[in-house]
Specification:
Structural class: mainly alpha
Radius of gyration: 20 Å
Shape: elongated
Strand content: under 5%
Largest sheet: none
């Protein structure tokens, strides 16, 4: 019960930082192209993020249905969960301060993988059972989604330019900004659905290990708490990452900004609601921005900044898995 309480305690700042980390993916480009003011954009994003979290429960969109952990001591599984949540919090704070749009989903799943492998070493579990968990399927989904986002945004620019050809520039820009304004809500709703999956995964894993009876009865209250905390994080605007996406990554006009935001919102909404896939909001949004911005006759993408972001994308699962494995090893030797 002490470990379960510590996990719940760590999840509180995790939810707030998650909102702060993900809100730039919805508002960076609309604010950059003056589709919305920063105040309006953050409020819309906060409201729809919270709504997405609340909808996860009645819609039955659960990431934890993909996973079935091998049989292990309940204290050991709680230790893995606590170390994974702690690593996730530390890495998200660090990358936010660096202004890097990294994947929370990548970090969370890599942390659980590293912690579970460490638990297998400590408790002498069968590695085949750990590796048999659907890590590959989830990893492929997370790796392919940025490529799909980049390619789709790049191709949609052709259609958008063709449609806008010959039109009045002011009218085209006005329509593009209106579409971006709508995409803020759709992207935020998809992000909220993703966040609901992540935190329910951690909470259900912890409550199951702690053998809490009637966990489903108090789960709705947890979703309300997550929605409020994530919404509060969104209200801050996450401007360190928003500045990277909106100003330091691509020089983008309203038309291509519309393509980038609608691609992100479409993939997140369809992926979350239609297929219940664990997509990365940050990787999808950044890839859409690069795809739309690179389809121009003149150089617009700041490739040095993009390479730095890619470095953090690679480091995220490596650091999360390694740190969680080390923490799990140390804590399990003390507790189990």
């Amino acid at each position: 019960m002490i470990l379960l309480g510590l996990i719940c305690l760590v999840l509180v700042p995790n939810a707030y930082v998650a909102g702060l980390h993900d809100v730039p993916n919805a508002i960076a480009i609309p604010v950059r192209t003056r589709a919305l003011t920063p105040r309006v954009a953050t409020r819309v994003a906060a409201g729809f993020n919270a709504l997405g979290v609340l909808l996860t429960l009645p819609l039955g969109i659960y990431l934890f249905t993909w996973f079935e952990f091998p049989e292990m001591d309940p204290v050991l599984l709680l230790t893995v969960t606590l170390c994974a949540a702690s690593t996730l919090l530390g890495w998200n704070i660090f990358t936010y301060l660096r202004g890097m749009p990294t994947s929370i989903t990548h970090a969370l799943l890599a942390a659980f993988l590293g912690g579970t492998l460490a638990a297998a070493v400590v408790a002498d579990l069968d590695f085949a059972e750990v590796l048999a968990m659907p890590w590959v399927g989830v990893a492929l989904t997370l790796l392919l989604s940025p490529l799909v986002a980049f390619g789709l945004a790049y191709l949609l620019v052709f259609a958008a330019v063709r449609f806008a050809r010959g039109g009045d520039p002011d009218a085209v820009n006005s329509t593009s900004r209106m579409a971006q304004s709508v995409s803020v809500g759709v992207t935020s709703l998809g992000t909220g659905l993703q966040q609901g999956q992540r935190f329910s995964f951690v909470l259900i894993t912890a409550s199951t290990a702690a053998q809490i009876e009637a966990a489903q009865a108090w789960l709705p209250y947890a979703y309300v708490a997550f929605a409020l905390l994530i919404g509060a994080g969104c209200l801050t605007g996450g401007w360190r990452i928003a500045h990277t996406l909106g100003h330091r990554l691509v020089d983008i006009d309203p038309l291509r900004g519309m393509v980038a935001t609608t691609t992100t919102s479409g993939l997140l909404f369809i992926g979350s609601l239609g297929f219940a896939l664990p997509l990365s909001t940050s990787l999808t949004a950044a890839s859409s921005v690069i795809g739309a911005g690179s389809n121009q006759r003149f150089a617009t993408v700041h490739w040095r900044q993009f390479r730095l972001i890619c470095l953090y994308w690679v480091l995220t699962p490596l650091v999360a898995a390694t740190v969680t494995a080390l923490l799990t090893t140390v804590m399990s030797l003390l507790l189990v």
